[in-house]
Amino acid sequence: MSLTEIQSRISEACANAGRNPDEVTLIAVSKVQPNERVAAVLAEGHRCFGENRVQEAAGKWPDFQEEFGRVELHLIGPLQTNKARQAIDLFDVIHSVDRPKLAHTLARLRKETGHCPDLFIQVNTGEEDQKAGVMPADADAFIAECRDLNLPVIGLMCIPPADEEPSLHFALLAKIAKRNGLEKLSMGMSGDFETAIAQGATHVRVGSAIFGAREYDH
Ligand SMILES: *Cc1c(COP(=O)(O)O)cnc(C)c1O
After folding, report:
1. How far is the CA of 77 from the centre of ligand 1 (A)?
2. Distance (Å) from CA 112 to ligand 1 centroid
3. Each residue of 179-211: pLDDT tens digit?
């Protein structure tokens, strides 16, 4: 597959849902991909990318931005508090705020530096032990806590369990966002972004369908 093919599938999914394609941001998830593949998508003009790990992003994006100009960078993987400082310098948006300790660290850094990326709160809609994210039952209180800290929370993010119907999880995320007055929904990956768009996604995170399969072992 390719960038243009994914873009046209997004337009089609928007048309089917009666939505404007401008409402949906395509985050090209470049984690673990070889630099040639990322450079090719940059050369096609795409300027919005997602990474899972602060360290990996810090190792490649300054050079890419020197070569290709400004890129909007999204952190979509878990964030350790000891990497928060580096993360706010590197990323425009963080999708994985999921616990009070991290929220307090970001609030302190915001005071110190005068800036903070836009934030999504990650919700563990499948209540999976191994997955990050605030539990659905705790989401309202955590959103309120982040707002009390004056953090720029713009929406919610989820990663549905691999073996379940994603639309139930997308619907739950949309419902929690709506009752909290949050407009942005980061949901949908290579296998389910059209379903996510039908349910209101504003940010889809698509990796392998654009770049090809990830090779973790070399
Ligand atoms: C890797 C990753 C993606 C992209 O997954 P694909 O299936 O390759 O599209 C999206 N979101 C998160 C949080 C990821 O870690």
Report:
1. 9
2. 32
3. 999 999 999 999 999 999 999 999 999 999 999
